[in-house]
Amino acid sequence: MELAWFEDFLEIVATRNFSTAAASRNISQPAFSRRIKALEAWVGAELIDRSTYPVHLTNAGNMFVPRCQEMVRDIYRLRTDCRNAAGASSQLLTFAALHTLAIYFFPNWISNPDMPSAPINSSMHTADFLECVEHLSSGKCDFIITYNHPDGPRVLGAGPFESQQIGKDRLVLVSGVDSTGAPLYDLDAPEGTSIPYLAYSWSDGYLGKLVSLIQSRWRRPLNLSLVYQSSLAEGLKQMAIAGRGVVWLPQICVQKSIAQGELVQIGGQQMTLEIEIRIFRRIGARSRDGEILWKHLARVAEQVGARSTVDPSLTLR
Question: Are residues 268 and 296 in the same domain?
């Protein structure tokens, strides 16, 4: 038996629809259905009447609901009480974040002297977008930090989650340089010229979909020829520095390389996209330090209009 099965059951109780509940839990419908069946096998009785639409609870399901709610609340309350009993000095706030944000954004952000109890004791799990979402959905971390754009895929848009904007970044198109500092590749090359392209793996998904938004703006078809894929922005950056192709990267990742003349931005403003940096958490009981951090971020957002907390140079004009 897993805690996630109980939370899955409470989601289907709330929505009475398998596809909606699966979306709220950020898993596929077949996987969600398998987990409900696994819970029913553990209980030893069917909890969901699947013959109706919307689905209804069986007699056993109706009996199970209040105890299930109580157990989930008690488990999370127990975890919070244990963490608090261990003392503030031993508590760690657990984060999951995209690799780029874990490397280039998180250290300065978490160490900001304006934080309520800086330095905050924390642990970090770096992962791709889908794994970050899974970590938060399954309760493996307190917070995730990821990119977000209104026209991009929805990030935890349904379910018991809330978020705050904590920064801004920008996707920019870059190329390696030749011995004179000029770009090795240019979008204004003669029509028909093939431009080697470094792309995000579809396993990452999120930044790749935002790049597709940018490409749709270009005045003519981009003659990009895929030569390399990776889910790691840092790996794509090193390939660009090595002269292997052009790539869209978060500016926070490449600003130093651009300043040092290793990379150059190409394509102009039309080939960029401003994106938010957001922090997400599950709604519900949290540790004392987690609550303090969240309330602090809410106050900061209210005072400064959720403006970026990253280097002002990230905002292009």
Answer: no
Residue numbers of the chain with a pLDDT score lower than 70:
1, 83-91, 117-119, 153, 157-159, 202-205, 219-220, 285-286, 304-317
- Return the axis-axis angle of helices 59-85 and 3-15, rounded to nearest 10°: 130
Which phi and psi (to 5°) does residue 242 adopt? Answer: -75, -5
Q: How many domains does the chain have?
A: 3
Report whether 144 contacts 132 (CB < 8 A).
yes
What is the per-residue pLDDT for 260?
Answer: 96
C-alpha–C-alpha distance, residues 27 and 12, integer Å: 13
Structural domain containing residue 190: 170-274
CATH number at residue 259: 3.40.190.10
Beta bridge partners of 273: 171
The residues, any chain, with a CB within 8 Å of residue 239's CB and separated by 6 or more, are: 198, 228, 230, 245, 247
- Lookup: tokens for 81: 């009480």
**Phi, psi values for residue 47, rounded to 5°:** -105, -25
Per-residue pLDDT tens digits for 51-101: 988 899 999 999 999 999 888 888 877 877 776 666 644 568 899 999 999
Based on the domain organization, do 192 and 242 belong to the same domain? yes
